[in-house]
């Protein structure tokens, strides 16, 4: 038998750690991870983050799999990922009625649950007993599902599951206008139970929408029926709202360290490099401490001043939590990954060193990431007087699997077992890089032969609708109607997308449907929908605005945008009798 290489021995070490700290807690029936040994609730968000280390390790093994033993370990790790992702999928599919209802009501009480029983995947609390509406959690699931599928894992098995995933896309596509409870499940900072617009949720939804667009859930073995479709305009609306909010998290939270997962791994949701820099600097300047970062300012969770018997605080009462907020090592893990993707080795080493100093060493020498650090009760007065001066103590779970998983990912990157591209096969990390200028193509089609001949007199040679066959030209409302067929599934009781307006990004592409090719005219020139299109000056103004919009916002999409315009009698002032 051949001896193990140094890299193989080191990977075996990480495999033992992953098995002991993470996979040992995975439920054999559902594949879900309970919150702790005494709490069987499985949160969507935590579960997805927990499995990332397993996914990363499987890809590291795949690169050195020159022995049967390594190939077996790689396969086992991959199937653990599939088991978890399918466990969450089954739990959500059991609530398919909620997905259908939420598309109509967007009510917090009709949302998918944020957590399920790790034993059987069933709900564990009622609709009104928890802040279940957490768009970032569902979006994170879709984002990682897309990345894992792109890496070669087969997670979705049937077209019924494809239909459900398509409906999950419709579930999150309006994140830019849906207040939710956010990454910390509390909504408004005072914990009154009021949802609010959260930048972290909008950013994660934007990332998920872009990642899922045109993704074949069956991988290389799929066909047109297994491809997910996203209206590009919905992702852009999320981007517009996100960029207008950053670096602020929400109305009640000035900043939130949770934004690190939006500006960096795993979402990479911000395309503006300067905005990424400003957001990170704001978080570090106001939330970073010796033991990690605070979640947000005046966060009373697990502080000595917190009253467990109270559900909420008045806004003025939050002042007692100022300067004694818990600090979370988890965010050092995010910062390590952030700088690893930026290829900033010095910053990676700096945060790795900081993190190692605050980790807890187990009896057998394994470094554990604790959930958070709090100021001891008897030192609160001194901390008030001089913030950051007191030694803190571990509170909460240890190891904190969410943080432990990201820590292991960071180590695999630092030691060269993984390249950043392997954790991001969809290349989302390149979104902030400068891209070539966009050239917008404009196609003018004559309504009939009379219009064609009139334009020819002015040396504009165009074709009529009949002459551009086999391409069919339709108004935007037809595209909106076609999108309603996506995700329809009688067996699951899912109706697909509700017919709504479609924007210029969606109508500036050609579509293939079976053996037919469609081009769509922009919605703003639809005479049957908007009487204002009868005004030639307004029409010209809207057209130039759309050109500028496409030039600025097509950069992350493939190909060239193509605006299809119909030259009509009304445009030329020749009204037919």
Automatic annotation (TrEMBL):
Belongs to the phosphorylase b kinase regulatory chain family. GO terms for molecular function: calmodulin binding. It is found in: Cell membrane. One of its GO terms (cellular component) is plasma membrane. Phosphorylase b kinase catalyzes the phosphorylation of serine in certain substrates, including troponin I. The alpha chain may bind calmodulin. InterPro entries: 6-hairpin_glycosidase_sf (IPR008928), 6hp_glycosidase-like_sf (IPR012341), GH15-like (IPR011613), PHK_A/B_su (IPR008734). GO terms for biological process: glycogen metabolic process. It is a lipid-anchor. Coiled coil: none annotated. This is Phosphorylase b kinase regulatory subunit. Residues 8-498 form the GH15-like domain. It holds the Pfam family Glyco_hydro_15. It comes from the Eukaryota. Keywords: Calmodulin-binding, Carbohydrate metabolism, Cell membrane, Glycogen metabolism, Lipoprotein, Membrane, Phosphoprotein, Prenylation.
């Amino acid at each position: 038998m051949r001896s193990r290489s140094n890299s193989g021995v080191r990977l075996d070490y990480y495999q033992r750690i992953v098995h002991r700290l993470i996979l040992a807690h995975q439920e054999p029936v559902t594949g879900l991870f309970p919150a702790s040994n005494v709490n069987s609730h499985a949160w969507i968000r935590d579960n997805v983050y927990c499995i990332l280390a397993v996914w990363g390790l499987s890809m590291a093994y795949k690169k050195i799999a020159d022995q049967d033993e390594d190939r077996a370990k790689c396969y086992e790790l991959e199937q653990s990922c599939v088991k978890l992702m399918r466990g969450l999928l089954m739990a959500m599919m059991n609530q398919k009625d909620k997905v259908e209802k939420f598309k109509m009501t967007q009510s917090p009480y009709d949302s998918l649950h944020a957590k399920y029983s790790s034993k059987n995947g069933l709900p564990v609390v009622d609709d009104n007993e928890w802040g279940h509406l957490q768009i970032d959690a569902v979006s994170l699931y879709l984002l990682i599902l897309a990345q894992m599928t792109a890496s070669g894992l087969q997670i979705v098995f049937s077209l019924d599951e494809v239909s459900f995933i398509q409906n999950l896309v419709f579930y999150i596509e309006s994140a830019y206008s849906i207040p939710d409870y956010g990454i910390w499940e509390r909504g408004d900072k005072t914990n009154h139970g009021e949802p609010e617009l959260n930048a972290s949720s909008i950013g994660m939804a934007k990332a998920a929408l872009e990642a899922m667009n045109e993704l074949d859930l069956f991988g290389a073995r799929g066909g047109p029926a297994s491809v997910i479709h996203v209206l590009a305009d919905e992702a852009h609306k999320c981007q517009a709202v996100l960029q207008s909010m950053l670096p602020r998290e929400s109305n009640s939270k000035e900043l939130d360290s949770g934004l690190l997962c939006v500006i960096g791994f795993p979402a990479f949701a911000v395309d503006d490099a300067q905005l990424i820099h400003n957001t990170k600097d704001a978080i570090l300047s106001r939330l970073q401490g010796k033991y990690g970062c605070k979640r947000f300012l005046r966060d009373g969770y697990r502080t000595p001043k917190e009253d467990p018997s109270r559900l909420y605080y008045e806004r003025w009462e939050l002042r007692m939590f100022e300067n004694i907020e818990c600090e979370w090592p988890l965010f050092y893990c995010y910062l390590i990954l952030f700088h690893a993707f930026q290829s900033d080795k010095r910053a990676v080493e700096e945060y790795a060193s900081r993190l190692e100093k605050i980790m807890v060493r187990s009896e057998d020498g394994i470094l554990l990431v604790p959930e958070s650090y709090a100021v001891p009760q008897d030192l609160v007065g001194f901390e008030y007087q001089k913030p950051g001066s007191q030694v803190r103590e571990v509170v909460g779970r240890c190891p904190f699997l969410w943080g432990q998983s990201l820590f292991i990912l960071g180590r695999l990157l630092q030691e060269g077992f993984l390249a950043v591209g392997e954790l991001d096969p969809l290349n989302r990390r390149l979104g902030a890089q400068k891209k070539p200028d966009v050239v917008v193509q404009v196609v003018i089609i004559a309504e009939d032969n009379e219009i064609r001949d009139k334009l020819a007199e002015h040396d504009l040679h165009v074709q009529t609708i009949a002459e551009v066959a086999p391409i069919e030209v339709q108004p935007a409302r037809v595209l909106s109607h076609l999108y309603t067929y996506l995700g329809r599934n009688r067996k699951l009781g899912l109706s697909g997308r509700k017919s709504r307006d479609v924007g210029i990004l969606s109508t500036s592409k050609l579509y293939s449907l079976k053996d037919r090719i469609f081009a769509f005219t922009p919605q703003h020139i639809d005479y049957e929908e908007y009487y204002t299109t009868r005004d030639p000056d307004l029409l010209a103004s809207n057209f130039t605005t759309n050109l500028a919009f496409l030039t600025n916002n097509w950069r992350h999409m493939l190909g060239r945008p193509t605006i299809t315009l119909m030259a009509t009698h009304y445009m030329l002032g020749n009204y037919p009798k």
